[in-house]
Amino acid sequence: MSSNAITIPGIRVEGKPWVDTLHEWVTTVDHKRLGILYIVYGLLFLVVGGVEALIIRIQLMHSHNNFVSPQVFNRMFTMHGTTMIFFMVMPILFGFANYLVPLMIGARDMAFPRLNAFSFWLTAFGGLLLYFSFVGGSGLYGAGNAPDVGWWAYAPLGARAFSPGHSSDYWTLSLLVSGFGSIGTGINIIATILCMRCPGMKLGRMPLLVWLYLVMGGMILIVITPLSAAQIMLLIDRYLGGHFFDTQAGGSAVLWMHFFWIFGHPEVYVLVIPAFGFLSEIIPVFSRKPIFGYPAMVAASVAIGLVSTSVWAHHMFTVGMNSYANSFFAITTMAVGIPTGIKIFNWIGTMWGGRIQFKVPMLFCIAFLFQFLIAGLTGIIQASVPVDWQLSLSYFVVAHFHYVIVGAIVFAVFGAFYYWYPKLTGRMLSERLGKWHFWLFLIGFHLTFDVMHIPGLLGMPRRIYTYEPGRGWDTLNLIVSIGAVIQAVAILVFVWNLIVSYFKGAKAGNDPWDAWTLEWSTSSPPAAYNFATVPVVASRRPLWDLKHPEDPDSQYE
Amino acid sequence: MQRVKNTIRTALHSLGFLFCCMTTAAAAGPSSTNIFAPQSPQAKSIFNFSIFVLTIVGIIFAVVSTLLVYSILKFRARTTSANGEPAQVYGSTQIELAWTIIPILIVVVLFMATARMLHAIQDAPMPASAVEVTVIGHQFWWEYRYPQLGVVAANELHIPVSDPAHPTPTFLQLLSADTDHSFWIPELAGKTDLVPNHPNRMWMDPERTGIFLGQCAQYCGTQHAKMLLRVSVDTPEDFAQWIREQQRPAVAEERVAAGKRVFETTACINCHAIKGTVANGRFGPDLTHLMSRTTIAAGAAVNTPENLRLWIQNPDAIKRGSLMPAMQLSDSDLDALMGYLETLR
């Protein structure tokens, strides 16, 4: 619990010098302020990574386009991928974890507030290191040399022979540094959830979002470590004469792939599991029903966490593993579909028989359900190994994982923004701008990523800076690029909404959605100490019990 | 049920056919790169398997999305019933069991089919009649070696058509000289990566003659995009003829001796080989039969005298970032060299 922060986040005291305000934010150990810092940081990188995506899409608008050089294009897709995964989605999810977990379990801060601040600043400087490569990548030889190895940096592309200069070192160091930040946050989330719950908040009464963040925390500890180990090995290769991945000296390129994907695939679940959590909070409130099958949802979440650590080599069906290994990773990959399916059915079960209110957070969640369904099914298609021999490394795969990361995770994150913004700021986001944001983004998303599957089926590989005319890819790519521009406009509407509503939004009050979890029982934004008196809960929906004393959940659980 | 399945199958087949039409209409060139236009038994079996998988996921999509749409429409809040909460339902063990067991059954079926198909393709034995080719991926071009036949070629692969009665499949041994690459001719077979220090194997048995296109599918560096593949599937006679021509050393005509001297006394020979001369470099494509190829720079440009000249003087104009250096030759040397290269048939 922090002892020095008494000011209320989000409210500036009149007449205080801005240096003091800045100093407070930089030195804060308050979980809510750190949460907001994470979120704002992630939003900045959303814009940066989005600009990179637009450069990629302009270049691919038609065949033999010369908008950027191949070198610049390769840097753009490397930076876009690295930025969006490590410095956009992860910080935003960590931000929501920081802000919401203590509030939802009736705690006054995270378990380790100083570790919390340390983790944030590691992540923040990790991102700056990555972008410093634009300036310092070639050292004294000049600027403009970001890494161009792809976000997997497959060996031996990361070796000194193929990546001279320091651009890929900045990439390595940035992932290493922010990786330590992620591990710190993972430990903090687990410790907070296990040790800081208020009286009555048994594990089986925690909100599902908290459960899912617990699973995410555990996964972070499992999956970030191999990535960090691999980055250190790469540094040893590059500077101490090691040969782990140096294929010219007998090293193994396949070893790097295993290291990377045993991180890389579970990472997708690290990102999507909090998104599941957002849905599991938002859908019940706007359906006016409790979550359907809470124990099944918890079990499915834990199962996804466990099984997803054994699926990584489905990224490697084309690298020449033997048929037994290929079969193993096919069945584990398909098996993840089972608990995932259970979750989708339970969300439908939650809406079934409810009174669904189509507020903006709910709209994003409903879109999530359709898009995640499709993303999961195209995933099953690719788990069928022989089909993947055709689809792997093509634009079909690019469309598939953007369906997961944008269609599911980013949609859920937008839903979370509209749902919890009132708690974070005390003001509602504009519903009108929110609908513009939703519909524009939905249309742009489907134009881009539905159509993007087709060039993959027509043989277009990923990561090419240009393509030959006459293969039927031109028109499709033009449509994809137009969709990207529409999405960019939607993001501008969103950012505008965030800014305008901060100053002019309707006052939210404590509980604008008539919701049931503890964060809505305190003021918006909450005081530094969160709760004047530590709450005591008797069921999964403490506020339902308060609002319906004649029919409390605690009777049934 | 069988009927419904057949109808869906037909519908999906026609969808695939639609894709074929889309590309064949768009592609005026030799062939398309459409995975739904298979031209070999292997690609066809993958295609049929895709249709099977698509059918299953299509049915799942139809069922789940119908449930979703139904629940959204049916249970939307109506203004008249705005007051009061709906019945609070917490779950149902029977329903949970149902929607756990059914997906498990689907996964079992899909996995069995997958394992069978992948074993059949991946572990297929090599018949004695197979043609063996060693494919070596380079930044950013392809080297082909026919160890049984003593032929070295680059970028354009020639293989014989495979008659189902007497199959002559081509088995490729896949190696890499530098970074990872991936060999992908969508109409003939799935892709397999070329990984340094990790030899791989794949095979193709094309059913019809013609030119088949593809390109490197694994990001390999700056010019990954222009590392194109061109496979010529020949009749057995044409293939034998092509092999005979490729086995011959380069013809040395007296009238182009000056050009040959330019080639042999500049940096060309550091990277390129021409059989029967002192040039034996291995970093770049073998040029012994340069003029037998339709394209240069791994498919980046058509093999015309103008393009070849530009390629030698300023490779960046055709393929920026390729490892071919600008040769800085004087006009007279370049004329002589072009004269020599044009005799390399």
Q: What would your notes on this structure say?
A:
The complex is a heterodimer of chains A (557) and B (345). Chain A is mostly helical and 557 residues long. Chain A has one domain: Cytochrome c oxidase-like, subunit I domain (Cytochrome C Oxidase, Chain A, Up-down Bundle), CATH 1.20.210.10. Chain A is 65% helix and 0% strand. Chain A is built from 15 helices and no strands. Chain A is globular, with a radius of gyration of 23 Å. The N terminus of chain A is likely disordered. By secondary structure, chain B is α+β, with helices and mostly antiparallel strands. Among the domains of chain B are: 105 residues, no CATH class; 88 residues, Cupredoxins -  blue copper proteins (Immunoglobulin-like, Sandwich). Helix content of chain B is 39%, strand content 17%. Chain B has 8 helices and 12 strands. In chain B, strands 3-2-1-5-8 form a 5-stranded mixed sheet. Chain B has a 3-stranded mixed sheet with strand order 4-10-9. In chain B, a hairpin with a 4-residue loop joins β11 and β12. In chain B, α1 packs across α2 and α2 runs antiparallel to α3. Chains A and B meet through α3, α7, α8, α9 and α10 of A and α1, α2, α3 and β9 of B.
List the helices and strands and how they pair.
The complex is a heterodimer of chains A (557) and B (345).
Chain A: H1 18-27, H2 31-59, H3 70-104, H4 113-136, H5 167-195, H6 208-239, H7 253-287, H8 294-307, H9 323-351, H10 360-383, H11 385-391, H12 395-425, H13 431-457, H14 474-504, H15 542-547
Chain B: H1 2-26, H2 41-74, H3 93-122, E1 131-138, E2 141-146, E3 151-154, E4 156-160, E5 170-176, E6 181-183, E7 192-194, E8 200-204, E9 210-215, E10 228-234, H4 236-247, H5 257-265, H6 268-271, E11 295-296, E12 301-302, H7 305-313, H8 331-341
Parallel strand pairs in B: 1-5, 4-10
Antiparallel strand pairs in B: 1-2, 2-3, 5-8, 6-7, 9-10, 11-12
